[in-house]
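Lab notes, practical 5.
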Amino acid sequence: MKPHSLVFRLAMLQQVLAAALIAVFAGSAVWLSARTLEREEVRFLTATARKMADNIDHDLEKHDDLERVALETVGEDAPVGVRVDVLDEQGRQVASTAPARSPARREETTTRRAHLSHGGWVVVSTSTRAPRSAISALILALFLTAVPLFIAVAAISRALARRALRPLSRMAGQAEQATLQGDLHALGHPTDPVEVATLATAFNRLLARVDKMLQTEREFTQDAAHELRTPLTVLSGELERASSDASLPAPRREGLGRAWDQARRMSELVEALLLLRGSDASAPERPEGLVPVNLTDMLREVGHELCERLPERAHDLEIVAADEVLVWGHAPLLSSALRNLLSNAFKFSEAGHAVRATSIVENGAAVVVVDDGGSGIAAADLDRIFDPFFRSAEARASREGFGLGLPILRRVARAHGGDVTASRSDLGGARFELSLPVWTSRRNGS
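Output from the prediction step:
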């Protein structure tokens, strides 16, 4: 289940709160209105019954005829919409405002009565239909008012949530920009709320520590590699010269040859570490290191270089390239990236297996695709092959290397605003796709 955004959650909380408040207000209004109508109706009926009873008692002092007096009083004083019945002492009806033969229809009524001092009762009643209709009309009016009010609250709540979370969005943008540029800048803004400012301060302290640790690690790696480069170069040269001395016994020359081979591998490791750190430090935002690079020409040069070094594989390589595929980048780093792509394809495919390199411009990106006819990459290793020093079981068993070629390739690609992916090739082996922004889009956007 996809998690909802914080804006959505805050807006939903506000909408739920608004809906609850509207429901409570509407319910309270309906309940109070119903109770008020009921109370006023009872008060009115009680007052009417008492008034008519007083009038009948007053007229009975002059005319001792309950039926006559009751009929006159009921005809003159009965309010509209109210039924008035006058009963004698035995409870018999002597006068009424109801028709003599009313239909047999039962409905709920509210009734009040007043006692006559000369004996008998005045009974006043009214139907509850009118109050119920009034309450129903009130409910409908509240509903028609609540619907647009809730819609307005929903729209306003989302806008308010976005506005309230704008400082966090700004911090996220600053962090993303720092990630792209490779520089850790302070997050936050002076106008941020206290809570956001506290969070920004905590993140800034963490970023400062991370930046210091990364800088220390980079400096240590570079210093160590630089310090090792010269003695390893001298050692390799001396061992190479010594192993070629024909006056030495063959076993000793073989031992010196093995030592020279190991020294050469250590020198390659140092160079790879320096290149790895160079790709970290290089960012395409730095104009002094950027030049227009034609990937097609560079791909052909690297392919020619590898074919000269591996003449037995010269017929396996096929380069299908557009005339001009320009990117805006660091030429040495990009050359190293292409060299790693082709070297990896030769390394993990046997002689006679095809290696195809293609360079095209597709969807605004410069793409270099290298396919090989080797055994391919195990599905379990696809997510790990770009990790530094990772080597698959096959590579450890039958191939030399340090597991730095592909990590260097990815870091170079990302330092130029691109990326590299691996998949299964239609040739049967591995397929690597290096994608970089084309030169025109980078230049226009700078």
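Observations recorded by the TA: The radius of gyration is 47 Å. The chain is about 60% helix and 15% strand.
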